[in-house]
Write a structure and sequence with these properties.
Layout (H helix, E strand, L loop, with lengths): L1 E2 L13 E10 L6 E9 L6 H9 L4 H8 L4 E4 L21 E11 L2 E11 L10
Antiparallel strand pairs: 1-2, 2-3, 3-6, 4-5, 5-6
Length: 131
Amino acid sequence: MMGARASNDLLVEEGQPLLHRAATLRGCISGCSYVYAESVIVTSRLPAGFSHRLESTNDPIGRILHEVGIAVSREDLVHPYGPMVSLPWNVNATVGDYLLARSYRIDSEQTPVMIIAEWFLSTLTPFLPSA
């Protein structure tokens, strides 16, 4: 857990506890890393069942949201310095080569609940259509 900064895209007060989660999505058979993602979550705005699943499983966030029955909407976050976004925490992650990076905010009932940043790694190149 960490505290929110004064200015943030989650619209929470400075110091409010936020959960930081990092994950690498890998191929089931190859074990190859394809996507690196980081998220910041306002757990106080989500049901206890969601937080419990985050802490006790490696399930992707989207699967947990669906299975717990939390209706969400997504808003892309656009920042002036391109896809490496200004997140509400200080990330010093090095993800190496990547094809695309994006960030977005997940809202539930028009209330921001998390921000996710994703880096689609160059290992996905073989799956792209030929130019």
